[in-house]
Structures are given as C-alpha cells and as structure tokens.
C-alpha cells in the first residue's frame, strides 16, 4: 500500500511540474496572408492580424529569478520605465508559403542607436529568436537570432545561425516618426533563410522577441519582450514561446483599417 501511495504521489508531483513548465510557454497563432504585404513600414495591410501588446510596470518585474516570467519590462539598472509613451509595443506575426512575416509598432519617446554590424543590439533595436523546429534544446548552431535596428539607415544582423540556412535575404523596413514617438518595424524572412523551418499550417516555431531601450544609458539599458529570457541573461532555446502557423487566411488589407491589439494582451 505504501509503495502505491508513494508512486501516486510521485505522479502527482511530475504532473504538477509539467503543468508549471507548460504554463511558462505562451502560444501565438500566426495567420496566413492570402497576398503578401508590401514591406514599407506602414502596416496598413496588417489590420486583420491579431497583435500582442507589451508594456512595462512602475514596479520592475520579470527579473531573473525562480518565477522567470520573462515577459515584462526589465532593466539592467540604468533605464527606468515611466509610461506607455516611454516604451510599449504591439507585435504581429504571419506567414505564407514563402515567408515568415513580423511587424512591430513601438512607442518610444526617444530613438537612439549608434551601432553597426554585430553591435546593433546595443541601443534602441529589435531582436528576434527563432527556433526553426521548436526543439527547445540547443541555441548555438540551431536557433536563429536576428537583430533589426535603425541607425543611420535600417540594418539587420544575425548573431546565431542554423547551418541549414540558405542565407540572409530578409526584406525589412524600419520607419521612425519623431512627431508621434513611434518606430515601426516590418519584416519578411524567406523560409529558406530559417531552414529547417517548414511554412505550413500546424507547424510550430520557438519564438521570442525583445525591444531594447536606450534613453540615457548609451546602450542597452532595459527592454520589453515576449519570451525575453531566450535572448537575454544567456541564450536559452527552452525559454522561447510557441508560434503556431494556422490555416486561417487573412487578406493584406491596405485600407488604413485600425490595427488589432486585442489578442493575448500583456500588460503588467
């Protein structure tokens, strides 16, 4: 009897641990574009794609600890977060048979990045981690880590690349509007660039993103993100979230319709 009781207790503990692990992973469902968007940084064509809103908290949360929330505003002890105007963003993802698409509308009162090449992360910039088969095991030589930044011109850099990649041929636009305090990122990454990812309904990528903040630090002083700890505090493929390609087809509407920010809203 005691043996069975111990076994049952062990099973309960294992189930509880697995549940806690799965709860740490969020899942974004990426719709399919019926016609590809024009990569121009305007985002009008994304009005039918659901967005995820990211912002901060006056109380810094998401720090590297046992809870490991890794989706809130975090600081390296230099930058502070004061409001949505200081730093917030809505991101969108979609796909078609040829490309993985990503867009982000960032609110940031000040934009500054003086980097080039592999240093473009050290300023206001976007970083993406893509685990092509959602293996959630190895990072180096498996997970792709992209950076996109507006310095004197829009730039891209890849710090981590899977050997199966056909190259870096992404199309991207980064548009800054100082009057409204916004920076818009729009990206199309060919499927071959992120091989062995398969662009098909039902396939899942491991995916994370961060937006770095540089107001007074002279570099990366903090960030907001989704699955951030795959990228910061070390490179950790198991901490990517899930991004599932779904069969729902959306039209790339260019009528100026309001962008959606309702799906999976994350606000601390």
Number of helices: 1
Give the helix/strand class: mainly beta
End-to-end C-alpha gap: 47 Å
Average pLDDT: 85
- pLDDT < 50 stretches: 6-23, 262-268
**Main sheet summary:** 13 strands, mixed
Strand content: 25-35%
- What general form does the structure show? globular
Order of helices and strands: HEEEEEEEEEEEEE
User: Helix proportion of residues, in percent?
Assistant: under 10%
Radius of gyration: 19 Å
Number of strands: 13
Would you write up a description of this structure?
Strands 1, 2, 3, 4, 5, 6, 7, 8, 9, 10, 11, 12 and 13 form a 13-stranded mixed β-sheet that branches. The chain has 268 residues and is mostly beta strands. Helix content is 8%, strand content 34%. The N and C termini lie far apart (47 Å). A hairpin with an 8-residue loop joins strand 11 and strand 12. It is built from 1 helix and 13 strands.
Features:
268 residues; mainly beta; 13-stranded mixed sheet; 1 helix; 34% strand; disordered C terminus
How would you summarize this macromolecular structure in one to three sentences?
By secondary structure, the protein is mainly beta. It has 1 helix and 13 strands.
Helices, strands, pairings?
Blueprint: H1 2-23, E1 27-33, E2 52-54, E3 74-75, E4 88-95, E5 99-107, E6 126-131, E7 144-150, E8 154-160, E9 171-177, E10 182-190, E11 204-213, E12 222-226, E13 241-250
Parallel strand pairs: 1-4, 1-13
Antiparallel strand pairs: 2-4, 3-12, 4-5, 5-10, 6-7, 6-11, 7-8, 9-10, 11-12, 11-13
């Amino acid at each position: 009897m005691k043996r069975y009781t111990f076994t049952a207790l062990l099973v309960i503990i294992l189930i509880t641990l697995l549940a806690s692990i799965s709860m740490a992973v969020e899942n974004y469902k990426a719709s399919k574009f019926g016609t590809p968007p024009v990569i121009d940084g305007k985002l009008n064509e994304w009005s039918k794609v659901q967005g995820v809103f990211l912002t901060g908290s006056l109380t810094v949360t998401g720090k590297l600890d046992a809870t490991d929330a890794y989706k809130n505003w975090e600081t390296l002890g230099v930058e502070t977060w004061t409001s949505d105007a200081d730093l917030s963003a809505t991101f969108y993802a979609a796909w078609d048979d040829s490309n993985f698409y990503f867009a982000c509308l960032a609110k940031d009162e000040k934009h500054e990045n003086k980097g080039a090449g592999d240093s473009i992360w050290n300023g206001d910039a976007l970083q993406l981690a893509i685990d092509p088969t959602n293996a959630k095991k190895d990072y180096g030589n498996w997970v792709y880590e992209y950076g996109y930044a507006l310095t004197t011109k829009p730039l891209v850099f890849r710090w981590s690349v899977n050997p199966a990649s056909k190259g870096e041929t992404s199309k991207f636009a980064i548009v800054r509007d100082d009057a409204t305090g916004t920076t818009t990122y729009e990206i199309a990454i060919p499927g071959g660039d992120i091989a062995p990812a398969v662009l098909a309904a039902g396939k899942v990528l491991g995916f994370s993103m961060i937006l770095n903040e540089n107001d007074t630090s002279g570099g990366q002083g903090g960030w907001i993100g989704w699955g951030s700890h795959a990228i910061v505090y070390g490179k950790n493929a198991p901490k990517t979230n899930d991004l599932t390609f779904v069969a729902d087809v959306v039209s790339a509407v260019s009528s100026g319709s309001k962008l959606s920010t309702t799906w999976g809203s994350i606000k601390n």
